[in-house]
Design a protein that fits this description.
By secondary structure, this protein is mainly beta. The protein has helices at 10-59, 74-85; strands at 94-100, 122-132, 143-155, 158-161, 168-170, 179-181, 186-190, 194-196, 208-212, 215-217, 221-223, 227-231, 234-235, 238-240, 263-265, 268-270, 272-274, 277-279, 282-286, 289-293, 297-299, 302-314, 318-321, 324-336, 341-344, 349-359, 363-367, 372-375, 385-389, 397-402, 405-408, 410-423, 431-434, 437-446, 449-453, 461-464, 467-470. The chain folds into two domains: 12-156, no CATH class; 161-464, no CATH class. It is built from two helices and 37 strands. Helix 1 runs antiparallel to helix 2 (74-85).
């Protein structure tokens, strides 16, 4: 009788192989999930650490990069501390590194930076971690290493000039004669250039119209529309401009609150709230503080005014000077908000430093028949801002000067027609404007010389605030 060979024991082999597969699946499911969870947790920690470091870098921007003391620097320390608060620090199970991206030899290198980016603005956080396994040990993997990275940008705040640093700009988009010149005026623009935003044309009725025999010199004339000339003016540096949105340079108005007992103490006005005041001849002082005028201010006669460290708020009427004498001031802020404007018409010699005229309403007229010297503040909210009329005020701004006039600081009236007239004989005796002049339309005329010297450091700049963002 024939007997088959025994097949006993084959099931044990199959069961053993199946057990290995089950362990592998268990390792994949359980240990793999644990690795994924640890990586996700570490990535969140790296992201928050990078943002914390970027915030610290913004708050303390003047540290020296690439020094042996780098781990002790505020930004580096902030990133390390934030990672530790989320359970990751340099120990047996993890390693945390925070670097500025301009450091040499980073491993891994910073990734996700835009083209032409400044690496010193970016911070990288690297977390290396080890996850202990349970089932994977059976197949020879007691630990699984991982690495996660995060990159954040700490962009420092900056200031940029308005209209790309043009010294004279007419912002109307479509008006003919947005910039006009007439008479025998000589306009010399030193630095910056001239910008005409209007696309009007062809002639007659172009964007810039020049009549007479004057000279117009600037590093560049950027005109979106047509240039129309009559007479024999000289114009150099003409190029085609790209139009800009005229709505810009919105500057917050001052908040002037008046307290105190208004009144005249001897020849000194005290802070507080007044109705209309009429200042006759004589010498008067204004004490330090805030003054609110609900009926305007009139200065007449042979009057000398001395004003230091004061703020004026005029909510009705006007600020007008028809006096002969002197107007002396330092650190003066004048806000017309509801009033009909500000007008200097007399023969007073004006000497003011650190002064800003902010006309939310009303017209501004400046007729300088004697020596006038005014300069804007060097610091504060209105640094380098001499005259400002917001886009909600389209009233006229008129400046008539002679060779004894000198104005320093930006003159911005984006919705207003600006008229500038110079009456002088030579460049050396010109009506000197160390300014950036921006209007809706601009008219330049007279029979003398107007010289605009544009120095960016003397002009109002738009603030580009600090920013932090997660890049990678």
């Amino acid at each position: 009788m024939y007997h088959k060979k025994s097949e006993k024991g084959q099931a044990l082999v199959i069961i053993a192989l199946a057990a290995v597969g089950l362990v592998a699946f268990a390792a994949l499911a359980i240990d793999g999930s644990r690795v994924f969870s640890d990586r996700r947790h570490a990535q969140n920690a790296a992201d928050t650490a990078a943002l914390a470091a970027a915030l610290a870098k913004i708050r303390t921007p003047d540290y020296p990069p690439n020094t042996p003391e780098a781990p002790d620097l505020p930004a580096i320390a902030a990133g390390i501390d934030r990672a530790a608060s989320n359970g990751y620090q340099t120990d047996a199970d993890s390693d945390v590194q925070v670097h500025i991206c301009d450091e040499v030899g980073l491993n891994p290198p910073c990734q996700g930076l835009p083209a032409l980016a400044d690496p010193s603005e970016y911070i990288q956080v690297v977390i290396r971690l080890t996850t202990n396994t349970t089932f994977a040990r059976i197949i020879g993997r007691p630990t699984v290493p991982s690495i996660v990275t995060a990159v954040a940008r700490a962009k420092p705040g900056s200031f940029s000039p308005l209209i790309d640093g043009m010294a004279l700009a007419a912002m109307s988009e479509h008006d003919p004669d947005a910039l006009t010149g007439h008479g025998n005026v000589n306009l010399y623009v030193n630095g910056g250039g001239v910008f005409v935003n209007s696309d009007a044309g062809p002639c007659p009725g172009g964007a810039m119209g020049v009549v007479g025999n004057g000279i117009y010199e600037a590093p560049v004339f950027e005109i979106d529309g047509a240039l129309c000339q009559s007479g024999l003016p000289t114009i150099n540096g003409l190029i085609q401009a790209t139009s800009l949105n005229p709505a810009f340079a919105n500057i917050d108005p001052p908040n002037i609150i008046c307290t105190g007992t208004a009144g005249l103490s001897g020849n000194t006005f005290m802070p507080g709230t007044y109705g209309n005041i009429n200042i006759p001849g004589g010498t008067y002082n204004f004490a330090d503080g805030n003054y609110c005028f609900t009926g305007g201010v009139s200065v007449n006669g042979n009057t000398t005014l001395n004003i230091n460290n004061a703020s004026f708020l005029i909510t009705s009427g006007e600020f007008v000077s028809n006096a002969n004498g002197a107007f002396n001031c330092t650190n003066l802020l004048v806000h017309i908000d509801g009033g009909s404007g500000m007008h200097f018409n007399g023969g007073s010699e004006i000497n003011c430093a650190g002064v800003t005229f902010f006309a939310s309403t009303g017209t501004v007229t400046w007729n300088g028949n004697v020596a006038n010297t005014l300069s804007a503040p060097d610091g504060g909210d209105y640094a380098h801002l001499l005259i400002y009329m917001p886009s909600t005020n389209s009233s006229a701004l008129t400046i008539n000067g002679n060779s004894q006039n000198s104005l320093t600081g930006s003159i911005i009236a984006v919705a207003s027609p600006i008229s500038i007239t110079g009456n002088s004989g030579t460049v050396a005796g010109s009506f000197l404007l160390s300014s950036q002049i921006i209007g809706y339309t601009v008219d330049v005329g007279g029979n003398g010389t107007i010289e605009i010297n544009y120095e960016p450091g003397d002009q109002y700049s738009a603030a580009d605030p600090h920013a932090i963002s997660l890049t990678e």
